[in-house]
Design a protein that fits this description.
heterodimer, A: 264 residues, alpha/beta, 6-stranded mixed β-sheet, disordered C terminus, B: 334 residues, mainly alpha, 15 helices
């Protein structure tokens, strides 16, 4: 399999905090790759660097062979890297249908069209996506009225509407109860299969990723600590040290934001 | 579907009333009607910014004034007919809107609003102090209209036609994918950016479109008053489209038009019957905004939902929380 995403020596510093420190990562086409690590390990910063939300201090990001390092977010989105957010990020005042439709309009580069009726445009594709995230029944509902879980599904649906080849999911199960978590990950797996997506997702809960990820990258304090198939990673003594209990005792700044806001 | 039908019926009735009104009205009332028609365009152009894109501008009157001056200055200095001058109004306002928008949109939210205030007052001062060009606060009056437009009824139909054209263009633009994109920017700027939408460009496009049609409305005003004066550009004049939009409702295309009718009739009634008409007017406006937070359109929708059980199943609890996020959204995300 060929590489879809290649990251070399990616680094980002916020003031005194080296949030991401020389991370290498290669994700193959069709792979489901997890990035795990405790809070503050640099996962979200890594995602922000890949999607162009932050500019790296050093290192390269290549997508499908093309260098996208430091490109603006919209370029990277159009290149085929989609992202669903850790904090639910939808258009609350629009309907569920309109939320997804907007992704569709953006993907087709029709957002600047000042004529033609937007209502009902691309209905087939939009409903198809809503079907696959199980929101078809709520198409006419105001997105802000949805439950938290449904909003996350909608968030995913908006990202899917851009027809990404690589989908980045930032803690897709954050704030969910165990039963919901299971369901959410099943949904992610099914969608990735149906749409032939390559997945890159991060989690701080190790257990969540094992059923889904082909390979796992473990991050700790900005560095890549370990990399491999889930069983290898689970057996790795360094990973166990970081994950099993010591995390709280060793890290008085345990609540540090992955974006390093506390330092800045 | 049902809403689409109600809306087109509403527009048809409004058009019929507007066309037949001159049969029943005297000349003074014709002028009230003309001012309503102008305000409807002015406020709708403003709603492109406020309601659709979520931008609060305090400079909108400046472009309205520029539109009026485009007609009168072309007449005074170049000897153009007002009809030819009118073509200049949206072009001049839109061009100046584009350049000043470029400056104001360097900031977002509150700082954007403050920049527009400064820009608007700067444009006002130009009109006020550049006597050689604008005759300063004397204004320019007594513009000669084409013979056909001198009777009030004819002038009214002329302005009504101009308003219909403006509303039709804006309605098409707001229903288009471009309009949908503006609403998405209003709802969540960052998310729109992540979808690959170049937010600033769209905001600038919306600002230019809005200011061009403010100029269009200003050009209409020059026909109405046969002149122009600096106060048209002043930020206090910007309150007009803001109030109109809030009264009618900023979440629908018809809102500002309905607001213009209500505010126009109310203002006429109050100024003729009360000495301290501004106090009365202010109180009434306050009451409308307090008790109908989403404007008249939203209030009517709510009444319809309460009055007709089962007509819309998801509706009953929606109206209560509906206007709050929308209103809060436009305030915080501008």
């Amino acid at each position: 399999m060929s590489a879809l995403l290649e990251i070399e020596g990616l680094s980002k510093r916020f003031g005194g905090l080296q949030a991401v420190d020389g991370v290498d990562l290669t994700v193959a086409v069709g792979e489901r790759r997890a990035v795990i690590g405790p809070n503050g390990a640099g996962k979200t910063t890594l995602f922000n660097l890949i999607t162009g939300y932050l500019r790296p201090d050093a290192g390269r990001v290549r997508f499908d062979g093309a260098d996208v390092t430091g490109k603006p977010t919209h370029r990277i989105a159009q290149a085929g890297i989609g992202r669903a957010f850790q904090i639910t990020s939808i258009f609350p005042g629009l309907t569920v249908f309109e939320n997804v439709q907007l992704g569709r309009l953006a993907q087709r580069r029709e957002t600047a069209r000042p004529f033609g009726v937007a209502a009902g445009r691309h209905a087939g594709e939009v409903n198809d996506i809503l079907d696959s995230v199980r929101l078809a029944g709520l198409a006419g509902e105001r997105a802000g009225n949805l439950s938290h879980g449904d909003q996350r599904a909608l968030e995913l649906a908006i990202s899917l509407a851009l027809e990404p080849r690589l989908l980045l999911l930032d803690e897709p199960t954050a704030g969910m109860a165990p039963a919901e978590t299971d369901q959410a990950m099943r949904l992610v797996r099914r969608i990735a299969e149906e749409r032939g997506l390559t997945l890159l997702f991060c989690e701080h809960d190790m257990e969540v990723v094992f059923g889904t990820a082909d390979r796992v990258l473990v991050m700790h304090e900005g560095k890549a600590l370990a990399e491999g198939v889930p069983d290898e990673v689970r057996a790795n003594p360094d990973v166990q040290r970081v994950y099993l209990g010591e995390e709280v005792a060793q890290r008085p700044t345990g609540g540090r934001d992955p974006d390093g806001e506390e330092v800045a | 579907m049902r809403r689409r039908l109600t809306a087109s019926t509403g527009w048809a009735i409004a058009a019929l009333v507007a066309l037949l009104a001159p049969l029943l009205l005297n000349e003074r009332q014709m002028f009230v009607l003309m001012s309503i028609v102008i305000l409807a365009v002015f406020a709708t152009s403003y709603n492109v910014l406020l309601g659709y894109t979520g931008m609060v501008s305090f400079a909108h009157a400046a472009y309205y004034g520029i539109g009026a001056y485009a007609v009168t200055l072309a007449w005074v200095h170049l000897g153009w007919s007002p009809l030819a001058g009118f073509l200049l109004a949206p072009v001049a306002a839109g061009a100046i809107g584009y350049v000043t928008g470029l400056v104001a949109l360097r900031a977002t939210r509150l700082y954007f609003s403050l920049l527009t205030l400064a820009i608007g007052q700067l444009l006002f001062l130009v009109a006020f102090q550049w006597r050689g060009l604008t005759r300063g606060d004397d204004g320019i009056f007594g513009m000669q209209l084409p013979l056909l437009l001198q009777p009030a009824t004819n002038r009214y139909y002329f302005l009504l036609a101009l308003a219909a054209i403006a509303l039709a263009i804006l309605s098409v633009a707001m229903r288009s994918p471009f309009g949908a994109t503006l609403r998405a920017i209003r709802e969540n700027r960052d998310r729109a950016g992540f979808l690959g939408i170049k937010v600033k460009r769209y905001e600038l496009a919306a600002f230019t479109l809005g200011t061009a049609f403010a100029g269009w409305a200003g050009g209409m005003y020059a026909f109405f008053d046969r002149g122009s004066f600096p106060l048209l550009l002043d930020w206090t004049t910007s309150a007009d489209p803001i109030f109109t939009t809030l009264i009618g409702g900023l979440n629908s295309f018809a809102g500002p038009v309905i607001g213009a009718v209500v505010l126009g009739l109310l203002r006429d009634f109050v100024t003729r019957n009360f000495l301290y008409f501004n106090v009365v007017l202010g109180t009434v406006l306050l009451a409308i905004i307090l008790f109908m937070p989403g404007g008249i359109v939203e209030g009517v929708r709510r009444l319809a939902a309460v009055g007709g059980p089962g007509r819309r199943r998801t509706q009953p609890e929606q109206p209560a929380d509906r206007e709050q996020p929308a209103a809060a959204g436009t305030r915080s995300k501008s």
